[in-house]
């Protein structure tokens, strides 16, 4: 069982096609520059891109949090800033720019600046995967942000009632005027996408760029993505990309559905190239183990991949495929179907507790 969902008129959602992610981190940078440069959150990334198989950010984030078998909040823990998030560090930009290294003729490389070398950080194990080269080595990229869940554990965990879902779009926000920094929300979120501002001592998290949503504009992470892998719209819009990918074609599925939070960020799972035999010839075995993908996305991942493979085969044979045309995203504007909200009709802060 899960707790009753918060009452919302509509639910905004995002789909990410993992077969198109370049790990360019443009989404991460656009989010960080726009919303998340405060001194107390310099170690946090509301959006990040992880290499899988890998440890993720924060390290081993999927190990705790979520809901118990009775539908209640399962207490997790707050990750350590030094060893699991990784503190922000500065780089030796001045040295590189001025070539001041004290030794003539030596090239100055960009590196962390300071007496203590960093021990961990976001993307510390970037492009590290599993397997042996060239037979079966593999990895893929997983962009992550707050899922703006239908049953958000962070909301239920907060004794102050400072976390809420907006009725007009289902975006989960923090009323920082009410927050006392208990960090129960950080503990409860199994995706570890609620953070603690160490300076202001309040919770902080992805806001799904709601000021942009209200103007009919996609979130910065989606709009700036050069790979056109993100789709944004309302779940109930049958003419939009979200409904088609999630409900019609059933190729977009949530991350860790077993947590019971009903996430509203969905993924088209990655297809896998084949393993090679001893002579370097392709086999019929995928490099990414199906069991591993099932551990991430649940059992629906197998049917989702089968559908994508079947539609791709049709497209390669010259047949039409609505799904492939949608995923290819010939017209980037069609990735986003977000009606402009009437600001005179509703104050965006009306839902604050």
Sum up the structure in keywords.
353 residues, alpha+beta, Alpha-Beta Plaits, 2 domains, five-stranded mixed β-sheet, two-stranded antiparallel sheet, 11 helices, globular
Tell me the layout of helices and strands.
Layout: E1 12-17, H1 26-35, E2 48-52, H2 81-85, E3 90-91, H3 93-98, E4 112-113, E5 140-144, H4 153-157, E6 163-165, E7 172-174, H5 184-188, E8 194-197, E9 202-205, H6 210-213, H7 220-223, E10 230-234, H8 241-248, E11 253-254, E12 265-268, E13 274-276, E14 282-286, H9 290-297, H10 300-316, H11 322-328, E15 336-337
Parallel strand pairs: 1-12, 10-15
Antiparallel strand pairs: 1-10, 2-5, 3-4, 6-7, 8-9, 11-12, 13-14
Describe this structure in words.
22% of the residues lie in helices and 16% in strands. It is α+β, with helices and mostly antiparallel strands. The protein folds into 2 domains: 12-74 and 123-337, Alpha-Beta Plaits (2-Layer Sandwich); 87-120, no CATH class. The strands form 6 sheets. Strands 11-12-1-10-15 form a 5-stranded mixed sheet. Strands 2-5 form a two-stranded antiparallel sheet.
Mean pLDDT: 91
Quaternary status: single chain
CATH class wording of the largest domain: Alpha Beta
Radius of gyration: 21 Å
Order of helices and strands: EHEHEHEEHEEHEEHHEHEEEEHHHE
Distance between the termini: 25 Å
How many beta-strand segments?
A: 15
Strand order, sheet with most strands: 11-12-1-10-15
Question: Given the structure, what is the number of helices?
Answer: 11
Strand content: 15-25%
Into how many domains do the coordinates divide?
Answer: 2
Helix content: 10-25%
Low-confidence stretches: none
Shape: globular
CATH architecture of the largest domain: 2-Layer Sandwich
The biggest sheet, with number of strands, parallel, antiparallel or mixed sense and barrel status, is: 5 strands, mixed
Q: Which secondary-structure class do the elements indicate?
A: alpha+beta
CATH topology of the largest domain: Alpha-Beta Plaits
């Amino acid at each position: 069982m899960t707790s009753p969902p918060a009452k919302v008129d509509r639910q905004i959602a995002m789909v990410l096609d993992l077969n198109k992610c370049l790990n360019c981190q443009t989404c991460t940078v656009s989010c960080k520059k726009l919303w998340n440069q405060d001194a107390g959150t310099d170690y946090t990334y509301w959006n990040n891109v992880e290499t899988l198989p890998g440890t993720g950010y924060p390290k081993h984030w999927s190990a705790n949090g979520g809901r118990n078998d009775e539908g209640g909040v399962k207490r997790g823990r707050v990750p350590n800033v030094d060893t699991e998030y990784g503190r922000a560090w500065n780089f030796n930009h001045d040295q590189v720019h001025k070539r001041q290294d004290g030794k003539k003729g030596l090239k100055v490389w960009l590196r962390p600046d300071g007496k203590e070398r960093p021990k961990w950080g976001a993307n510390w194990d970037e492009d590290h995967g599993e397997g042996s080269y060239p037979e079966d080595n593999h990895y893929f990229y997983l962009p992550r942000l707050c899922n703006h869940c239908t049953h958000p554990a962070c909301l239920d965990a907060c004794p102050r009632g400072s976390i809420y879902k907006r009725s007009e779009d289902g975006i989960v926000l923090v009323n920082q005027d009410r927050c006392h920094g208990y960090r129960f929300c950080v503990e409860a979120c199994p995706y570890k996408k609620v953070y603690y501002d160490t300076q202001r001592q309040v919770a902080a998290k992805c806001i799904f760029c709601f000021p942009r949503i209200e103007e009919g504009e996609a979130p910065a992470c989606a709009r700036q993505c050069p790979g056109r892998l993100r789709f944004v719209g309302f779940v109930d819009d049958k003419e939009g990309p979200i409904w088609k990918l999630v409900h019609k074609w059933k190729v977009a599925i949530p991350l860790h559905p077993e947590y019971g939070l009903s996430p509203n960020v969905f993924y088209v799972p990655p297809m896998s190239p084949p393993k090679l035999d001893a002579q370097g010839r392709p086999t019929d075995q995928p490099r990414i183990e199906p069991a591993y993908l099932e551990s991430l996305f649940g059992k629906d991942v197998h049917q989702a991949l089968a559908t994508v493979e079947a539609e791709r085969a049709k497209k390669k044979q010259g047949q039409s495929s609505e799904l492939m045309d949608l995923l290819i995203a010939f017209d980037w504007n069609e990735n986003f179907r977000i009606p402009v909200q009437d600001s005179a009709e509703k104050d965006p802060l009306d839902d604050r507790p």
